[in-house]
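Might I ask for a little of your time on a matter of protein folding? What I wish to show you is a protein chain and, alongside it, a tokenised description of its three-dimensional fold. I should value your view on which stretches of the chain appear to form regular backbone elements. You will find the record immediately after this paragraph:
***
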Amino acid sequence: MSELSVVLEKQSFLEGPRWFGGRVFVSDFYTHRVLSLLPDGSDVRVEASVPAQPSGTGLLPDGRLLIASMRDQRILRREEDGTLAVHAELAGLTTSVLNDMAVDPQGRAWVGCFGFDLMGGAAMQPAVLMRVDPDGTAEIVAEDMLFPNGTVADGETVIVAESFGNRMTAFDVAADGSLTNRREWATFGPAPQTTDVGEALGSLAVVPDGIAEPDRDGAIWVADAGNKRAVRVLEGGEITDEISTGDDECFAVALGGEDGRTLFLACAPSFLEHERRHTRDARLLSTRVGVPLAL
């Protein structure tokens, strides 16, 4: 087992860790806060309070923070004075809660959603991936995705973890922002042939949840939310490294630190809202890895 350090503890449910400007940003679902801290866990700051529950975050080219506000299907923008403005309204594109998000160097946000009422026990349904342009206009850019979750976007390619699909899916980004050349970037096994969440989870070799920016070799660290671990994945699906998170599930990861070799892991005993909302046992962990973040 890799040596794990506790960076942050006593939170409700942490998601979407990001490495921005020498600090780790992370959303805590049920305290409705976006936090940031130094990599040793010190200097914890509340960057934003999001009553409708924060998830993915990203930075616009001018440094302003974007936040996926899950339950009201909005993308919020933090202005220079710290106030939050509505950057985009996505309720016309999806009725389900928003999920993770990535912002590319052009300032376009790529946003997933659940597609169905996961916490309410509904049957699985396909979901959409949406693009939000810097001016706040938005459109659906991909359909029939099985719980689009962790996302990375470099301006030319978008890679999305499909948590219930046993795969990570890649697209090329056209000049107009549309997505082309849809393909399986990594395949871990066949997609489930059921709409029952419990049955689906039991059939998945990897439950790809949050994912990190690619490392120098093009590999991506992936939170495997069904197997209490994070894995380093090459294009095609080969797993080169594995980090166990002990008794907790791992729901999201980020690669960062001063030298790009620190992996941050968002962990909790489970993902179910009724188990996590009133508890404070989620933690952000860290460990050292061999290949640094790509520059």
The first strand starts at residue 5 and ends at 11. The chain is about 5% helix and 50% strand.
